[in-house]
Amino acid sequence: MPLAVRYMVLPIAFSIALSLCSPAAAEVIASKSYSYFDIRGKTADELDRELSRRGPTASGSSARHPGATKIRFGGEATYIQDNGRCRVGNVKVTVHTQIILPRWSSRKGASKELSMIWDALSSDIKRHEERHAEIARDQARAMERAIRALPQQRSCEAMQELVSDESARGIEEHDRQQARFDRVEAVNFQKRMLRLLNNRINGRAGAK
After folding, report:
1. Which residue has the higher pLDDT, 63 or 18?
2. Shortest CA distance to 107 belongs to which of 35, 47, 64, 53?
3. Among 15, 75, 183, 186, which residue's Cβ finds the most Cβ atoms within 10 Å?
4. CA-CA distance, 114 to 70, in Å (whole number)?
5. From the centroid of its chain, how far is CA 144?
6. What's the pLDDT score for residue 116?
7. At a CB cut-off of 8 Å and minimum separation 6, what does 155 contact?
């Protein structure tokens, strides 16, 4: 059952307000939710087919995957105009992640070997998706810092354009980090699964 996970990113959009004297402030608001899709089967091949048939799709693709993380960025910024210059006032970057995971609904009566394989696989899927969400949260914080550090401009229109450019760069960097993580995970999947299975086998042996 190969692990192939994708994510969905929606463009960040900053709302704008002008302020004459409010102090600068910054904030990152991160939220996370979970949803599940049920699969059935009594063999590894049946579970594999169910994941391929019922798993979530990625943005822009009809292929289905064992799990996914949908990511939505947003944000707000205010601008302070003073002595003919404009600077960023308040900054708020938001990021919501929805983690979609498989749930084996016909586990009762399955063999111990298949249950062990499923436990290893499902835990790895969850770990992988949690890392996607963590990357998104880290990048939201990096974007907030980068926007807050932007230099003053001659007009708030120019300041607004600078914020838009910086947010676009932040999204592009986020996409690069997510793609890099997926590439590394794909290369190490077999080794990782063998290690997880060995740990579970050794754990069972030690418990006897």
Report:
1. 63
2. 47
3. 75
4. 29
5. 17
6. 86
7. 86
Average pLDDT over residues 185-190: 77
Query: Residue 136: what are its φ and ψ, rounded to 5°?
Result: -65, -45
**Number of other residues whose CB lies within 10 A of the CB of residue 56:** 21
* Cα–Cα distance for residue pair 114/203, rounded to 1 Å: 16
pLDDT of residue 78 exceeding 80, the answer is yes
3-state secondary structure 33-53: EEEEEEECCCCHHHHHHHHHH
Extract the tokens encoding 115. 């249950």
Whole-number average pLDDT of the chain: 81
b/e per residue 163-198 (b: at least 16 CB within 10 A)? bbebbeebbeebeebbeebbeebeeebeebbeebbe
- Quick one: pLDDT at residue 197? 63
Residue 102, helix vs strand vs coil: strand
